[in-house]
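Pipeline run #58 for the internal structure catalog. This entry was flagged by the ingest filter as a single-chain record with no existing model, so it goes straight to prediction. Upstream metadata was stripped on purpose; only the residue string is passed forward. Reviewer on rotation: M.T. Logging verbosity set to normal.
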Amino acid sequence: MQLTEEEKRTLIDIAKTTIECRLAGMSIPEFRIDTEVLKEKSGAFVTLKKSGHLRGCIGYIEAKNPLYKTVEQMAIAAAFNDPRFPPLKRDEVKHVTIEISVLSKLKEIKDINEIEIGIHGIYIVKGFYSGLLLPQVASEYKWDKITFLEETCYKAGLHKSAWRDKDTKIYIFSADVFTQH
């Protein structure tokens, strides 16, 4: 899914407005969506960063809702329901940057050589355990493929070499990633 600059701005505005309304105790407005692309079902993550450091990140892997609704819901989840962080406070919002990752469909792979650092994110599933890292994570930390796989296993609660196990499924995906300006 290729988004226009205007569609990206719309999604950033939806995430920002949703968080600000929630902080002010106001109801979230009904957003008027003019483009069909934003109405298409798509998976997406909303990442919040404060002074360059992670402050919240939650998303849907699969396309369950229209993209604009997914962004609205994930903005609330990233700001107030990420178990790694306390809920966002009103005085923090001016220091927070919003990043949105709109995901492609998942593709199961059998050969890790299909993974391209900076292009693909990884989703690993083994039994009841699963973990996902977005494409930009490996680039930000300058990881190679093996480290990226190991860190995704760690996030899933698995031992770092679980990606090698026959019953582990490895999926890749790409993302259209953009940040508020």
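catalog note: The longest helix spans residues 5-24.
catalog note: The chain is about 30% helix and 25% strand.
status: ready for reviewer M.T.
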